[in-house]
Amino acid sequence: xxxxxxxxxxxxxxxxxxxxxxxxxSRYRRERCDHCFASGKVLKCSGCCYVYYCNRTCQKEAWxxxxxxxxxxxxxxxxxxxxxxxxxxxxxxxxxxxGDLEKGYYTETCYRKFRDLxxxxxxxxxxxxxxxxxxxxxxxxxxLLGDNLMPNFTELQGIYGRVVVNxxxxxxxxxxxxxxxxxxGISVVDHSCTPNAVATFEGTTLYIxxxxxxxxxxxxxxxxxxxxxxxxxxxxxxxxxxxxYFLCTCSRCIDPEESPEMEAAACPNSNCIxxxxxxxxKEFPESCETCxxxxxxxxxxxxxxxxxxxxxxxxxxxxxxxxxxxxKICLTKQKNVLHRLNLWHTKSLDLxxxxxxxxxxxxxxxxxxxxxIDGFRKYNGDFNPLLGLLxxxxxxxxxxxxxxxxxxxxxxxxSNILRIxxxxxxxxxxxxxxPLLMQxxx
Length: 442
Ligand SMILES: C[S@@+](CC[C@H](N)C(=O)[O-])C[C@H]1O[C@@H](n2cnc3c(N)ncnc32)[C@H](O)[C@@H]1O
Prior knowledge:
The chain is mostly helical. It is 47% helix and 10% strand. A hairpin with a 5-residue loop joins strand 7 and strand 8.
Protein backbone atom coordinates (compact mmCIF):
# COMPACT_ATOMS: atom_id res chain seq x y z
CA UNK A 1 0.00 0.00 0.00
CA UNK A 2 1.36 3.47 -0.93
CA UNK A 3 2.18 5.81 1.97
CA UNK A 4 -0.14 8.81 2.11
CA UNK A 5 1.56 12.10 2.74
CA UNK A 6 -1.58 14.10 2.21
CA UNK A 7 -4.57 14.52 4.43
CA UNK A 8 -6.62 11.35 4.84
CA UNK A 9 -10.37 11.76 4.75
CA UNK A 10 -12.72 10.12 7.21
CA UNK A 11 -13.87 6.79 5.77
CA UNK A 12 -10.63 6.07 3.90
CA UNK A 13 -9.28 2.54 4.23
CA UNK A 14 -5.71 3.10 5.42
CA UNK A 15 -4.54 -0.49 5.77
CA UNK A 16 -5.78 -3.93 4.87
CA UNK A 17 -4.13 -7.23 5.62
CA UNK A 18 -4.68 -10.97 5.50
CA UNK A 19 -3.83 -12.83 8.70
CA UNK A 20 -0.40 -14.32 9.44
CA UNK A 21 -2.41 -17.06 11.17
CA UNK A 22 -6.09 -17.36 11.96
CA UNK A 23 -8.26 -19.83 13.80
CA UNK A 24 -12.01 -20.27 13.70
CA UNK A 25 -13.68 -20.69 17.10
CA SER A 26 -14.21 -24.43 17.53
CA ARG A 27 -17.88 -23.91 18.32
CA TYR A 28 -18.41 -22.75 14.70
CA ARG A 29 -16.45 -25.69 13.22
CA ARG A 30 -19.47 -27.31 11.62
CA GLU A 31 -21.19 -24.11 10.46
CA ARG A 32 -18.37 -21.97 9.06
CA CYS A 33 -15.49 -22.49 6.65
CA ASP A 34 -12.18 -22.94 8.49
CA HIS A 35 -10.42 -20.90 5.80
CA CYS A 36 -12.64 -17.91 4.89
CA PHE A 37 -15.05 -18.10 7.89
CA ALA A 38 -18.12 -17.92 5.59
CA SER A 39 -21.20 -19.50 7.17
CA GLY A 40 -23.46 -22.02 5.46
CA LYS A 41 -23.10 -25.56 4.20
CA VAL A 42 -19.57 -26.85 4.86
CA LEU A 43 -17.73 -30.07 3.96
CA LYS A 44 -15.44 -32.02 6.27
CA CYS A 45 -11.73 -32.48 5.55
CA SER A 46 -11.53 -36.23 4.96
CA GLY A 47 -8.00 -36.28 6.39
CA CYS A 48 -8.45 -34.95 9.92
CA CYS A 49 -12.27 -34.93 10.07
CA TYR A 50 -11.74 -31.84 12.26
CA VAL A 51 -12.02 -28.80 9.97
CA TYR A 52 -14.71 -27.98 7.40
CA TYR A 53 -14.61 -25.89 4.21
CA CYS A 54 -17.28 -24.08 2.22
CA ASN A 55 -15.96 -25.21 -1.18
CA ARG A 56 -13.05 -26.81 -3.04
CA THR A 57 -11.39 -23.46 -3.74
CA CYS A 58 -11.12 -22.69 -0.03
CA GLN A 59 -9.96 -26.22 0.71
CA LYS A 60 -7.25 -25.91 -1.95
CA GLU A 61 -6.11 -22.49 -0.74
CA ALA A 62 -5.97 -23.74 2.85
CA TRP A 63 -4.22 -27.00 1.94
CA UNK A 64 -0.73 -25.51 1.64
CA UNK A 65 -0.78 -24.95 5.36
CA UNK A 66 -3.48 -27.37 6.48
CA UNK A 67 -1.48 -30.32 5.16
CA UNK A 68 1.01 -29.64 7.95
CA UNK A 69 -1.51 -29.52 10.78
CA UNK A 70 -3.92 -32.12 9.33
CA UNK A 71 -2.13 -35.22 10.75
CA UNK A 72 -1.90 -33.61 14.19
CA UNK A 73 -5.59 -32.76 14.26
CA UNK A 74 -6.43 -36.27 13.01
CA UNK A 75 -4.66 -37.71 16.05
CA UNK A 76 -6.79 -35.70 18.45
CA UNK A 77 -10.23 -35.98 16.77
CA UNK A 78 -12.98 -36.34 18.05
CA UNK A 79 -11.68 -34.31 20.99
CA UNK A 80 -11.66 -30.52 20.59
CA UNK A 81 -8.42 -28.52 20.64
CA UNK A 82 -8.81 -25.33 22.72
CA UNK A 83 -8.77 -22.31 20.36
CA UNK A 84 -5.74 -20.80 22.10
CA UNK A 85 -3.79 -24.06 21.69
CA UNK A 86 -4.73 -24.29 18.01
CA UNK A 87 -3.45 -20.80 17.18
CA UNK A 88 -0.21 -21.48 19.08
CA UNK A 89 0.21 -24.79 17.21
CA UNK A 90 -0.35 -23.02 13.88
CA UNK A 91 2.28 -20.41 14.73
CA UNK A 92 4.81 -23.04 15.86
CA UNK A 93 4.31 -25.02 12.66
CA UNK A 94 4.41 -21.90 10.50
CA UNK A 95 7.62 -20.58 12.09
CA UNK A 96 9.28 -23.94 11.45
CA UNK A 97 8.39 -23.58 7.76
CA UNK A 98 9.98 -20.17 7.23
CA GLY A 99 7.10 -18.08 8.63
CA ASP A 100 9.61 -16.00 10.59
CA LEU A 101 10.60 -14.38 7.26
CA GLU A 102 7.06 -13.28 6.39
CA LYS A 103 6.57 -9.49 6.38
CA GLY A 104 3.49 -7.43 7.09
CA TYR A 105 3.76 -3.95 5.55
CA TYR A 106 2.14 -0.93 7.19
CA THR A 107 3.62 1.61 4.74
CA GLU A 108 5.23 1.01 1.37
CA THR A 109 8.61 0.46 3.01
CA CYS A 110 7.94 -0.32 6.69
CA TYR A 111 7.09 -3.83 7.76
CA ARG A 112 7.01 -6.13 10.77
CA LYS A 113 7.94 -9.78 11.08
CA PHE A 114 6.57 -12.08 13.76
CA ARG A 115 9.58 -11.49 16.04
CA ASP A 116 9.01 -7.70 15.87
CA LEU A 117 5.69 -8.01 17.67
CA UNK A 118 5.59 -7.03 21.35
CA UNK A 119 5.36 -10.02 23.69
CA UNK A 120 5.37 -8.34 27.14
CA UNK A 121 7.56 -11.26 28.09
CA UNK A 122 8.41 -10.05 31.61
CA UNK A 123 4.89 -9.02 32.53
CA UNK A 124 3.49 -12.35 31.37
CA UNK A 125 6.16 -14.31 33.22
CA UNK A 126 5.11 -12.67 36.47
CA UNK A 127 1.35 -12.86 35.84
CA UNK A 128 0.12 -16.00 37.67
CA UNK A 129 -3.10 -16.17 35.62
CA UNK A 130 -1.13 -16.20 32.35
CA UNK A 131 1.51 -18.63 33.61
CA UNK A 132 -1.20 -21.08 34.67
CA UNK A 133 -2.98 -20.72 31.31
CA UNK A 134 0.22 -21.28 29.36
CA UNK A 135 1.16 -24.31 31.44
CA UNK A 136 -2.18 -25.95 30.67
CA UNK A 137 -1.87 -25.04 26.96
CA UNK A 138 1.62 -26.47 26.92
CA UNK A 139 0.26 -29.88 28.00
CA UNK A 140 -2.29 -29.85 25.15
CA UNK A 141 0.34 -28.71 22.64
CA UNK A 142 2.77 -31.43 23.63
CA UNK A 143 0.09 -34.02 23.08
CA LEU A 144 -0.87 -32.45 19.75
CA LEU A 145 2.59 -31.81 18.27
CA GLY A 146 4.79 -34.32 20.12
CA ASP A 147 8.12 -33.65 21.88
CA ASN A 148 10.16 -33.01 18.74
CA LEU A 149 8.19 -30.01 17.51
CA MET A 150 7.56 -28.46 20.92
CA PRO A 151 9.55 -25.26 21.50
CA ASN A 152 11.10 -24.80 24.94
CA PHE A 153 9.00 -22.98 27.55
CA THR A 154 10.77 -19.62 27.09
CA GLU A 155 10.20 -19.70 23.34
CA LEU A 156 6.60 -20.81 23.84
CA GLN A 157 6.03 -17.95 26.25
CA GLY A 158 7.31 -15.45 23.66
CA ILE A 159 4.87 -16.83 21.09
CA TYR A 160 2.01 -16.86 23.59
CA GLY A 161 2.77 -13.25 24.63
CA ARG A 162 2.67 -12.09 21.01
CA VAL A 163 -0.74 -13.68 20.55
CA VAL A 164 -2.12 -12.18 23.78
CA VAL A 165 -0.84 -8.68 23.04
CA ASN A 166 -1.39 -8.52 19.26
CA UNK A 167 -4.21 -10.98 18.54
CA UNK A 168 -7.49 -9.68 17.09
CA UNK A 169 -10.93 -11.11 17.68
CA UNK A 170 -12.20 -11.68 14.14
CA UNK A 171 -15.77 -10.35 14.01
CA UNK A 172 -18.69 -11.16 11.77
CA UNK A 173 -20.86 -8.40 10.26
CA UNK A 174 -22.84 -8.11 13.49
CA UNK A 175 -19.61 -7.65 15.46
CA UNK A 176 -19.75 -11.10 17.12
CA UNK A 177 -16.41 -12.79 17.65
CA UNK A 178 -16.00 -15.85 15.42
CA UNK A 179 -12.26 -16.42 15.62
CA UNK A 180 -8.80 -15.08 16.36
CA UNK A 181 -6.19 -13.73 13.97
CA UNK A 182 -2.69 -12.34 14.12
CA UNK A 183 -1.84 -9.54 11.62
CA UNK A 184 1.81 -8.54 11.34
CA GLY A 185 1.58 -5.03 9.82
CA ILE A 186 -1.57 -3.99 11.65
CA SER A 187 0.02 -4.93 14.99
CA VAL A 188 1.64 -1.47 14.77
CA VAL A 189 -1.61 0.26 15.77
CA ASP A 190 -1.89 1.55 19.36
CA HIS A 191 -5.01 1.95 21.48
CA SER A 192 -7.07 4.96 22.49
CA CYS A 193 -10.45 5.21 24.22
CA THR A 194 -11.17 8.05 21.74
CA PRO A 195 -10.03 6.22 18.60
CA ASN A 196 -9.60 7.93 15.24
CA ALA A 197 -9.63 4.65 13.32
CA VAL A 198 -11.60 1.43 13.41
CA ALA A 199 -10.92 -2.22 12.60
CA THR A 200 -13.51 -4.24 10.66
CA PHE A 201 -13.38 -7.59 8.91
CA GLU A 202 -14.55 -9.08 5.64
CA GLY A 203 -14.08 -12.78 6.20
CA THR A 204 -10.65 -12.98 7.81
CA THR A 205 -9.22 -9.89 6.08
CA LEU A 206 -8.75 -6.95 8.42
CA TYR A 207 -9.43 -3.37 7.33
CA ILE A 208 -8.39 -0.25 9.20
CA UNK A 209 -10.41 2.82 8.25
CA UNK A 210 -10.07 6.41 9.42
CA UNK A 211 -13.13 7.62 11.34
CA UNK A 212 -11.78 11.17 11.54
CA UNK A 213 -9.92 13.27 9.00
CA UNK A 214 -6.20 12.62 9.59
CA UNK A 215 -3.41 15.05 8.67
CA UNK A 216 -1.19 12.22 7.32
CA UNK A 217 -0.52 8.51 7.56
CA UNK A 218 1.47 8.74 10.78
CA UNK A 219 1.01 5.47 12.65
CA UNK A 220 2.12 7.04 15.93
CA UNK A 221 -1.01 9.20 15.71
CA UNK A 222 -3.50 6.57 14.60
CA UNK A 223 -5.43 4.68 17.25
CA UNK A 224 -8.09 1.99 17.39
CA UNK A 225 -9.86 0.82 20.51
CA UNK A 226 -8.69 -2.52 21.94
CA UNK A 227 -11.53 -2.83 24.47
CA UNK A 228 -15.22 -2.09 24.98
CA UNK A 229 -15.22 1.68 25.43
CA UNK A 230 -18.71 1.75 26.95
CA UNK A 231 -17.19 1.19 30.39
CA UNK A 232 -16.10 3.35 33.30
CA UNK A 233 -12.59 4.79 33.10
CA UNK A 234 -11.53 2.43 35.87
CA UNK A 235 -12.91 -0.67 34.11
CA UNK A 236 -11.34 0.27 30.76
CA UNK A 237 -7.99 0.80 32.46
CA UNK A 238 -8.27 -2.54 34.30
CA UNK A 239 -9.04 -4.35 31.02
CA UNK A 240 -6.14 -2.69 29.22
CA UNK A 241 -3.69 -3.31 32.05
CA UNK A 242 -4.63 -6.98 32.48
CA UNK A 243 -4.65 -7.84 28.78
CA UNK A 244 -2.15 -5.42 27.24
CA TYR A 245 -0.01 -4.37 30.22
CA PHE A 246 -0.20 -0.59 29.92
CA LEU A 247 -1.88 2.29 31.69
CA CYS A 248 -4.03 4.23 29.26
CA THR A 249 -3.43 7.99 29.34
CA CYS A 250 -5.76 9.00 26.51
CA SER A 251 -7.76 12.23 26.82
CA ARG A 252 -10.79 10.34 28.19
CA CYS A 253 -8.81 8.41 30.79
CA ILE A 254 -7.13 11.51 32.20
CA ASP A 255 -10.26 13.67 32.21
CA PRO A 256 -11.24 14.02 35.90
CA GLU A 257 -14.81 14.92 34.88
CA GLU A 258 -15.46 11.75 32.88
CA SER A 259 -16.21 9.22 35.63
CA PRO A 260 -18.52 11.42 37.72
CA GLU A 261 -20.43 12.34 34.55
CA MET A 262 -20.96 8.67 33.69
CA GLU A 263 -22.55 8.04 37.07
CA ALA A 264 -24.82 11.12 36.94
CA ALA A 265 -28.17 11.09 38.73
CA ALA A 266 -31.33 12.56 37.22
CA CYS A 267 -32.66 15.78 38.73
CA PRO A 268 -35.51 14.84 41.14
CA ASN A 269 -37.59 17.44 39.30
CA SER A 270 -38.78 15.32 36.35
CA ASN A 271 -39.20 18.44 34.16
CA CYS A 272 -35.48 19.24 34.46
CA ILE A 273 -32.96 17.51 32.16
CA UNK A 274 -29.85 18.68 34.04
CA UNK A 275 -27.60 15.77 35.13
CA UNK A 276 -26.61 15.80 38.79
CA UNK A 277 -22.89 15.18 39.03
CA UNK A 278 -21.63 13.74 42.32
CA UNK A 279 -18.45 15.47 43.51
CA UNK A 280 -15.59 12.92 43.55
CA UNK A 281 -18.23 10.41 42.45
CA LYS A 282 -19.72 10.45 45.97
CA GLU A 283 -21.06 13.79 47.19
CA PHE A 284 -24.36 15.16 45.88
CA PRO A 285 -24.76 18.91 45.35
CA GLU A 286 -27.26 20.51 47.75
CA SER A 287 -29.55 21.43 44.89
CA CYS A 288 -29.80 21.24 41.10
CA GLU A 289 -27.70 23.93 39.39
CA THR A 290 -30.43 24.69 36.87
CA CYS A 291 -33.81 24.38 38.58
CA UNK A 292 -32.56 24.71 42.19
CA UNK A 293 -34.56 21.67 43.36
CA UNK A 294 -33.18 20.49 46.73
CA UNK A 295 -31.60 17.03 46.73
CA UNK A 296 -33.07 15.16 49.71
CA UNK A 297 -31.26 12.49 51.68
CA UNK A 298 -33.97 10.01 50.66
CA UNK A 299 -33.23 10.71 46.99
CA UNK A 300 -29.50 10.20 47.58
CA UNK A 301 -30.23 6.90 49.30
CA UNK A 302 -32.46 5.79 46.43
CA UNK A 303 -29.78 6.68 43.86
CA UNK A 304 -27.22 4.54 45.71
CA UNK A 305 -29.62 1.65 46.08
CA UNK A 306 -30.62 1.71 42.37
CA UNK A 307 -27.01 2.01 41.20
CA UNK A 308 -25.86 -0.94 43.34
CA UNK A 309 -28.88 -3.01 42.29
CA UNK A 310 -28.29 -2.28 38.57
CA UNK A 311 -24.56 -3.07 38.73
CA UNK A 312 -25.28 -6.38 40.49
CA UNK A 313 -27.95 -7.37 37.99
CA UNK A 314 -25.81 -6.46 34.98
CA UNK A 315 -22.92 -8.49 36.38
CA UNK A 316 -25.17 -11.53 36.91
CA UNK A 317 -27.08 -11.54 33.63
CA UNK A 318 -26.40 -14.59 31.49
CA UNK A 319 -29.63 -16.08 30.31
CA UNK A 320 -31.22 -13.86 27.66
CA UNK A 321 -34.78 -15.04 28.28
CA UNK A 322 -34.70 -13.92 31.90
CA UNK A 323 -32.58 -10.87 31.10
CA UNK A 324 -35.44 -8.92 29.58
CA UNK A 325 -37.51 -9.12 32.78
CA UNK A 326 -34.53 -8.17 34.92
CA UNK A 327 -33.66 -5.28 32.56
CA LYS A 328 -37.22 -4.02 32.79
CA ILE A 329 -37.06 -4.08 36.61
CA CYS A 330 -33.75 -2.16 36.50
CA LEU A 331 -35.12 0.40 34.03
CA THR A 332 -38.25 0.96 36.13
CA LYS A 333 -36.16 1.54 39.25
CA GLN A 334 -33.84 3.90 37.32
CA LYS A 335 -36.65 6.17 36.13
CA ASN A 336 -36.20 9.72 37.52
CA VAL A 337 -33.23 8.48 39.56
CA LEU A 338 -30.39 7.85 37.06
CA HIS A 339 -29.76 10.46 34.36
CA ARG A 340 -30.76 9.29 30.87
CA LEU A 341 -27.09 9.29 29.77
CA ASN A 342 -25.85 7.50 32.91
CA LEU A 343 -23.57 4.61 31.90
CA TRP A 344 -25.46 1.96 33.91
CA HIS A 345 -28.77 3.11 32.45
CA THR A 346 -27.26 2.95 28.94
CA LYS A 347 -25.93 -0.55 29.59
CA SER A 348 -29.35 -1.66 30.88
CA LEU A 349 -31.02 -0.29 27.74
CA ASP A 350 -28.45 -2.03 25.54
CA LEU A 351 -29.11 -5.40 27.16
CA UNK A 352 -32.87 -4.84 27.12
CA UNK A 353 -32.69 -4.00 23.38
CA UNK A 354 -30.71 -7.15 22.52
CA UNK A 355 -32.88 -9.37 24.77
CA UNK A 356 -36.11 -8.02 23.26
CA UNK A 357 -34.73 -8.73 19.75
CA UNK A 358 -33.74 -12.24 20.80
CA UNK A 359 -37.28 -12.83 22.04
CA UNK A 360 -38.93 -11.24 19.00
CA UNK A 361 -40.59 -8.51 21.09
CA UNK A 362 -40.35 -5.87 18.41
CA UNK A 363 -42.32 -3.04 20.08
CA UNK A 364 -40.20 -3.35 23.24
CA UNK A 365 -37.02 -3.60 21.18
CA UNK A 366 -37.88 -0.47 19.23
CA UNK A 367 -38.61 1.55 22.32
CA UNK A 368 -35.36 0.45 24.06
CA UNK A 369 -33.38 1.03 20.85
CA UNK A 370 -34.65 4.59 20.36
CA UNK A 371 -33.86 5.47 23.99
CA UNK A 372 -30.41 3.90 23.64
CA ILE A 373 -29.18 6.07 20.75
CA ASP A 374 -27.90 9.09 22.69
CA GLY A 375 -26.07 7.08 25.36
CA PHE A 376 -24.56 4.80 22.75
CA ARG A 377 -23.33 7.80 20.78
CA LYS A 378 -21.92 9.44 23.90
CA TYR A 379 -19.89 6.39 24.95
CA ASN A 380 -19.00 4.79 21.62
CA GLY A 381 -18.53 7.92 19.50
CA ASP A 382 -20.24 9.21 16.35
CA PHE A 383 -18.56 6.81 13.93
CA ASN A 384 -18.63 3.50 15.68
CA PRO A 385 -19.70 0.25 13.99
CA LEU A 386 -21.94 -0.62 16.97
CA LEU A 387 -23.82 2.67 16.59
CA GLY A 388 -24.24 1.99 12.86
CA LEU A 389 -25.55 -1.48 13.66
CA LEU A 390 -27.94 -0.08 16.29
CA UNK A 391 -29.47 2.20 13.66
CA UNK A 392 -29.63 -0.66 11.14
CA UNK A 393 -31.35 -3.00 13.61
CA UNK A 394 -33.79 -0.24 14.56
CA UNK A 395 -34.61 0.37 10.89
CA UNK A 396 -35.17 -3.34 10.34
CA UNK A 397 -37.48 -3.58 13.36
CA UNK A 398 -39.42 -0.53 12.20
CA UNK A 399 -39.93 -2.10 8.79
CA UNK A 400 -41.36 -5.16 10.57
CA UNK A 401 -43.65 -2.85 12.54
CA UNK A 402 -44.62 -1.02 9.36
CA UNK A 403 -43.18 2.27 10.65
CA UNK A 404 -41.66 3.10 7.29
CA UNK A 405 -40.82 6.79 7.79
CA UNK A 406 -38.94 6.07 11.03
CA UNK A 407 -37.22 3.10 9.36
CA UNK A 408 -36.03 5.33 6.51
CA UNK A 409 -34.58 7.85 8.94
CA UNK A 410 -32.73 5.24 10.99
CA UNK A 411 -31.45 3.34 7.96
CA UNK A 412 -30.06 6.58 6.52
CA UNK A 413 -28.26 7.20 9.83
CA UNK A 414 -26.93 3.64 9.62
CA SER A 415 -25.72 4.32 6.09
CA ASN A 416 -23.92 7.54 7.17
CA ILE A 417 -21.98 5.59 9.79
CA LEU A 418 -21.41 2.23 8.08
CA ARG A 419 -20.11 3.80 4.86
CA ILE A 420 -17.35 5.31 7.03
CA UNK A 421 -16.64 2.34 9.32
CA UNK A 422 -17.12 -0.48 6.79
CA UNK A 423 -17.17 1.19 3.38
CA UNK A 424 -19.79 0.84 0.67
CA UNK A 425 -18.22 -2.30 -0.77
CA UNK A 426 -18.44 -4.22 2.53
CA UNK A 427 -20.95 -7.10 2.45
CA UNK A 428 -22.77 -5.70 5.51
CA UNK A 429 -23.42 -2.51 3.57
CA UNK A 430 -24.16 -4.11 0.21
CA UNK A 431 -26.14 -7.19 1.16
CA UNK A 432 -27.87 -6.11 4.36
CA UNK A 433 -28.21 -2.34 4.53
CA UNK A 434 -28.93 -1.55 0.86
CA PRO A 435 -31.83 -4.06 0.58
CA LEU A 436 -33.34 -2.59 3.77
CA LEU A 437 -32.99 0.93 2.39
CA MET A 438 -34.66 -0.18 -0.82
CA GLN A 439 -37.48 -1.82 1.12
CA UNK A 440 -37.96 1.36 3.14
CA UNK A 441 -38.14 3.55 0.04
CA UNK A 442 -40.72 1.39 -1.76
C1 LIG B 1 -0.50 -4.41 19.34
S1 LIG B 1 0.78 -3.64 20.18
C2 LIG B 1 0.70 -2.05 19.47
C3 LIG B 1 1.98 -1.61 18.89
C4 LIG B 1 3.08 -1.38 19.85
N1 LIG B 1 3.11 0.01 20.31
C5 LIG B 1 4.39 -1.75 19.19
O1 LIG B 1 5.25 -0.91 19.05
O2 LIG B 1 4.54 -2.92 18.82
C6 LIG B 1 0.06 -3.46 21.77
C7 LIG B 1 0.99 -2.93 22.81
O3 LIG B 1 1.35 -1.59 22.50
C8 LIG B 1 1.38 -0.80 23.67
N2 LIG B 1 0.33 0.22 23.58
C9 LIG B 1 -0.72 0.23 22.75
N3 LIG B 1 -1.46 1.33 22.92
C10 LIG B 1 -0.87 2.04 23.89
C11 LIG B 1 -1.17 3.28 24.52
N4 LIG B 1 -2.21 4.01 24.19
N5 LIG B 1 -0.32 3.71 25.51
C12 LIG B 1 0.76 2.97 25.86
N6 LIG B 1 1.09 1.78 25.29
C13 LIG B 1 0.28 1.33 24.32
C14 LIG B 1 1.13 -1.72 24.85
O4 LIG B 1 2.35 -2.14 25.35
C15 LIG B 1 0.39 -2.86 24.19
O5 LIG B 1 0.54 -4.07 24.88
